[in-house]
Each structure stands twice: as structure tokens, then as C-alpha cells.
């Protein structure tokens, strides 16, 4: 059956209408133009990029690789990827207009683009992942029930998976078991791009955070490398799911546990 005429076309991997195609052509599976589609296909199986929502972007030095908007992210091809230069973008007087080095004609770039750029420019991240995970959304809903003043930060401690997080931008090492992981929550907006100023403001308030939750929407997670962004996103999703189950069992997310001293025989 033919799709309705107003349905967004699915990526077909046809780059014939583009210039600078060499920017997305590589046999290396680690090339960002190959990695974004393969990561998004994995994220779809986790429920992170369902129904065109969510996505991922990768920065390689000055070049930023971006998925198309409104497409099923698990089906896109390297030829569907947009590429822009951070240096060229920085010179642009109009913050909202973007000069793409490669721009597939049939789509628009992801609405998440300015949020991904914030992670790259303000945190020197190399990868930013945006999920619509149920667990992320549920955590923001649970926090909402705790009322104004207590609903703008997710906090958890004394859980082993917290060690999956770096200590912060430009700070060596990872969090420890007894450390408290803090993730700011911002309110959702009618359009994804309008989240940018609130995400940037949360980054200012939480200089060491690697993620920002968006109420009733999902989460943005970044890292200094693709590997670290993915590890942190997985760790966070694990912690969000655990937190939802803990809440169901009436268990607190923050506990006071004294460090156990190792005994020597
Ligand atoms: C049903 S998804 C609505 C937009 C959104 O929240 C999102 O993450 C995807 O935006 P994109 O422009 O990348 O399709
Ligand atoms: Zn989204």
C-alpha cells in the first residue's frame, strides 16, 4: 500500500542530488556516517529512538554528522547524513541558520541539531545521543509528583552502575560507588529547537553533568568519545529503570551507606 502523501519519505540512501558525497562514503564501520545509522539501529531495539523520535550525532574534529529529521532513525543510510563545519558555524552571525557542507535535498536536518551542537561546543563532546526511553520519561514524571522545587533534579547514589559516569568535563576518572549522580531536568517545549536555551542553561548550572533530562520527552547524553557517550547513555538508562522499580517498591534513591573498610587476614 502506498504511504499517505503527507507521510515523511523514508531514507532511501540515494545521494545523487548531493555534493560532497565523499564526506559520508567510507568502508570503515567506525566512520561517523556509518556509525550513526548502525548505532540508531541498535538504539531502536532498546526503545530509545522509536517512531522517528530521538537520534544521535557525532563530531569528528571540526565536522559534525547529523541525521535527517522525521525519519525512522533505525532505517537511515550513510547517504542520508548531513555534515556541517563547526568553524564555519561559529563564524555565522545568525545562530539559527546553518551552513551545511553536505545537505541531502530530500530531507531536513534533525530538529535536535542545535542541542547536539551545544554538547559539542560547550562540552567539547564528540557524540551526543538523544533518547525517548520510557525510563527517562517515567523518571521525570515521578519527579513531577514531588512538586515544585524537588522536580528539577534526578539524584541517585550507592548503586554500582554510577561508576559508568565520568567525573565531569576536563576532570579525570569516573564517579565512585558512594558518589551521588545528579542529572538536571528541564521542561519540554512545543518544538525541539526551543529546548536549546534551557539545555545550555542547565549545562551552566551543572558543569560536570553529562546528561540533561527533558520532562515528558526523554534525555540528552554526551561524552568525550562515542564509546563514552554510549556507555553513559546505557548506564543512565539502567539507572532510570532501576529508579522506577525502586519507586514502585517504595525504596529511596538516596541512601546513607558508610564505606566498608577491607579487612586484611
Ligand atoms: C515523534 S519525534 C518528535 C521530535 C523529537 O522529539 C525528536 O527527538 C526527533 O527529532 P528529529 O528532527 O531528529 O526527527
Ligand atoms: Zn526528542
TrEMBL record:
Keyword Metal-binding listed:
yes
Q: Which reaction does it catalyse?
A: 5-(methylsulfanyl)-D-ribulose 1-phosphate = 5-methylsulfanyl-2,3-dioxopentyl phosphate + H2O
Query: What does the entry comment about cofactor binding?
Result: Binds 1 zinc ion per subunit.
Q: Which residues form the Class II aldolase/adducin N-terminal domain?
A: 34-244
Can you tell which superkingdom this protein's organism belongs to?
Eukaryota
- Does the record bear Amino-acid biosynthesis in its keywords? yes
What are the subcellular locations of this protein? Cytoplasm
As recorded in UniProt, its EC number(s) are 4.2.1.109
Which GO terms fall under biological process for this protein? L-methionine salvage from methylthioadenosine
Q: Name one GO molecular function term.
A: zinc ion binding
Q: What residue range is the signal peptide?
A: none
Cofactor(s) named in the record:
Zn(2+)
UniProt pathway annotation? Amino-acid biosynthesis; L-methionine biosynthesis via salvage pathway; L-methionine from S-methyl-5-thio-alpha-D-ribose 1-phosphate: step 2/6
| Annotated residues for binding of substrate | 112
User: Which residues are Zn(2+)-binding?
Assistant: 130, 132, 217
A single Gene Ontology CC term: cytoplasm
Task: Provide the function of this protein.
Answer: Catalyzes the dehydration of methylthioribulose-1-phosphate (MTRu-1-P) into 2,3-diketo-5-methylthiopentyl-1-phosphate (DK-MTP-1-P).
HAMAP family registered for this protein in UniProt: Salvage_MtnB_euk
Similarity comment: Belongs to the aldolase class II family. MtnB subfamily.
Its protein name is Methylthioribulose-1-phosphate dehydratase
Source species: Lasiosphaeris hirsuta
Amino acid at each position: 500500500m502506498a504511504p499517505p502523501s503527507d507521510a515523511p519519505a523514508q531514507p532511501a540512501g540515494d545521494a545523487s542530488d548531493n555534493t560532497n558525497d565523499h564526506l559520508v562514503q567510507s568502508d570503515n564501520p567506525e566512520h561517523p556516517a556509518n556509525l550513526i545509522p548502525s548505532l540508531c539501529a541498535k538504539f531502536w531495539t532498546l526503545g530509545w529512538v522509536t517512531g522517528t523520535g530521538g537520534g544521535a550525532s557525532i563530531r569528528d574534529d571540526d565536522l559534525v554528522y547529523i541525521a535527517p529529521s522525521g525519519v525512522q532513525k533505525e532505517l537511515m543510510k550513510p547517504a542520508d547524513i548531513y555534515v556541517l563545519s563547526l568553524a564555519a558555524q561559529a563564524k555565522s552571525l545568525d545562530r539559527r541558520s546553518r551552513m551545511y557542507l553536505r545537505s541531502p535535498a530530500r530531507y531536513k536536518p534533525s530538529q535536535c541539531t542545535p542541542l547536539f551542537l551545544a554538547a559539542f561546543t560547550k562540552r567539547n563532546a564528540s557524540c551526543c545521543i538523544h533518547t525517548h526511553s520510557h525510563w527517562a520519561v517515567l523518571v521525570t514524571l515521578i519527579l513531577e509528583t514531588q512538586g515544585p522545587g524537588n522536580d528539577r533534579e534526578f539524584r541517585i547514589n550507592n548503586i554500582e552502575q554510577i561508576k559508568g559516569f565520568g567525573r565531569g568535563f576536563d576532570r579525570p576518572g569516573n564517579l565512585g560507588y558512594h558518589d551521588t549522580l545528579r542529572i538536571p531536568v528541564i521542561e519540554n517545549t512545543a518544538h525541539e529547537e526551543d529546548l536549546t536555551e534551557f539545555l545550555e542553561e542547565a549545562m551552566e548550572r551543572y558543569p560536570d553533568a553529562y546528561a540533561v533530562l527533558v520532562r515528558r520527552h526523554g534525555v540528552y547524553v554526551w561524552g568525550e568519545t562515542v564509546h563514552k557517550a554510549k556507555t553513559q547513555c546505557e548506564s543512565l538508562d539502567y539507572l532510570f529503570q532501576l529508579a522506577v522499580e525502586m519507586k514502585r517498591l517504595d525504596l529511596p534513591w538516596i541512601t546513607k551507606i558508610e564505606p566498608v573498610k577491607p579487612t586484611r587476614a
